[in-house]
Structures are given as structure tokens and as C-alpha cells.
Write a structure and sequence with these properties.
Order of helices and strands: EEHEHEEHEHHEEEHEHH
Bound molecules: zinc ion
Shape: elongated
Radius of gyration: 21 Å
Number of domains: 2
Number of strands: 10
């Protein structure tokens, strides 16, 4: 089988571009849908950043969450994960916040999940008992010793999101399959997983915050333009300055409206 060719642009985006006025970077417009083969790895990369930024402390592998012949493995797995969490609470332990992705076992023997956890440490024996009672398989829990990129890579490897470079599409990844297994989602998370200093964030906000943090809060000002006008806008220093000021004024206005 021929590996799918990497797409150089989103097939559903408009012909317009997005310009970042400070750096002069130009990006093609994209549809941002996870159903799109070009946009899915980019969305997954953003989500990876958000997961990393949420500061997970442990990795949990939950096995046997659904059987091979299950018609809706995602629904079954979500129910089982819910039961594992409930069992932990009944055993007097707070499960903490979880973000997890369901994956197919390599030998086609059912489905497991990779979970990133923040909160109280869960002893292996307690987790094991909670899984047995939920009808799940043998779990593993490990603390994350090195904070950073690779933790989210672990969670979303099925989406071709490992590495933070602009490797937009990995020919060997099975991103579409991963999305299908997870019923159209890149990951599932408990309500408080995406939070900064205890304040729960919407996942999109968290992605934006994570991206800003990764870029060390460099100033950014985005505008949309037609592809043909991008070069002339960037070459015109006065126009560029004026547009930058306008964008900044607008974001200050938005901030005022929110406060
Ligand atoms: Zn797209």
C-alpha cells in the first residue's frame, strides 16, 4: 500500500492567508476540523501543548477497556474508565484529573487507554483493585520524571503529534483511525484537567495559553489577507505598523468587554 502523501495545505481552507505582523510569518488558512487530514495533526499538536501545560504528574495505562469485537469500543471504554474512577473514590482515593486517549491493542486483542493524571498519587495496588472491579485489565501507573514535551507525546502518539516541529502530517501515522476509535475526539478528559493555578479553562483557551507560553509570550498580531497581498503588506513598514496598532487596539477592546 502506498503511504498517503503529505498535504501542503488544508484542502478545505479558503485561499486566504493569516499574517503574523511582528514576525512576518504567513500561514495558509485552514479549516481547523479534525476530520481534515491536514488539520488533524496540527490540532493534535495544539492539544498536546495544552495537555503538557496542564502539568500532568503521572502516566497510567489502562488495559482491556473494550473487547476486540465491541461495536462501540469508545462508549464501552468511557463507561469502564468512569467505573474505575468511581471505584477509586469509593475506596477513599481521589482519582485526580485525567486526560486519556483510547487505542487499539497492537495484536488486535481489544482496546487500552493512555492516561495522563494530575493530583493525588494512586498506589498501584489500589488502582489494580479499582480496575478489577470495573472489569478492566491490569493497569500500570508511573510518575512522570521529566516534565515536558514527551509526556503529551505519549498520550497522543496515535495522532502523529509527536515532536513540536511543523511536521504537519506523518505518512506512517494512523490519525484517522485514532480519531475514529475515540468517536471523533482527540482525547477525553475529566472536568478539571485543563486548569491553570486551579482555575479550570476551556480546552481552546488552554491551547492558546500553552502556545503563548511556549512562545514565551512574544507579542503577536494576526490579520487575514489575500495570498496575493501578503508580500506587499509585509514590505510596507508603515502599513504594517498601522495594522499592528489596530489589531492591538482591538484586542484591548475585547479584553475590556470581557472584564
Ligand atoms: Zn483543514
Amino acid at each position: 500500500m502506498e503511504p498517503p502523501k503529505a498535504l501542503s495545505a488544508c484542502p478545505y481552507g479558503s485561499k486566504r492567508v493569516v499574517i503574523e505582523l511582528y514576525s512576518g510569518s504567513v500561514y495558509p488558512d485552514r479549516c481547523r476540523s479534525s476530520q481534515c487530514p491536514y488539520c488533524l495533526p496540527l490540532n493534535a499538536r495544539r492539544r498536546c501543548l495544552a495537555i503538557t501545560y496542564a502539568g500532568p504528574q503521572r502516566m497510567i495505562r489502562l488495559s482491556l477497556l473494550a473487547g476486540e469485537s465491541d461495536e462501540n469500543p469508545c462508549a464501552t471504554a468511557l463507561t469502564r474508565v468512569g467505573l474505575v474512577r468511581r471505584n477509586l473514590k469509593r475506596m477513599g482515593l481521589e482519582p485526580g484529573e485525567w486526560s486519556f486517549t483510547i487505542e487499539k491493542n497492537p495484536k488486535e486483542t481489544g482496546f487500552h487507554a493512555h492516561c495522563l493524571q494530575r493530583g493525588t498519587s494512586i498506589p498501584q495496588a489500589v488502582l489494580q483493585e479499582a480496575c478489577v472491579r470495573a472489569g478492566a485489565g491490569f493497569p500500570y501507573i508511573n510518575s512522570i520524571k521529566r516534565q515536558g514535551i514527551w509526556t503529551s507525546r505519549y498520550g497522543l502518539k496515535g495522532f502523529g503529534a509527536d515532536g513540536y516541529g511543523l511536521k504537519a502530517f506523518r505518512p506512517n501515522g494512523d490519525a484517522r483511525e485514532a480519531l475514529r476509535i475515540n468517536n471523533g475526539r482527540m482525547e477525553h478528559h475529566s472536568r478539571g484537567f485543563f486548569a491553570i493555578d486551579g482555575t479550570v479553562m476551556r480546552v481552546r483557551e488552554m491551547e492558546r495559553e500553552a502556545l503563548a507560553a511556549m512562545n514565551e509570550y512574544k507579542r503577536v498580531a494576526y490579520i487575514g489577507a489575500s495570498a496575493s497581498s501578503a508580500a506587499s503588506i509585509l514590505a510596507d513598514t508603515r502599513l504594517r505598523d498601522r495594522l499592528t496598532k489596530e489589531v492591538n487596539r482591538r484586542s484591548v477592546g475585547k479584553l475590556r468587554a470581557m472584564v
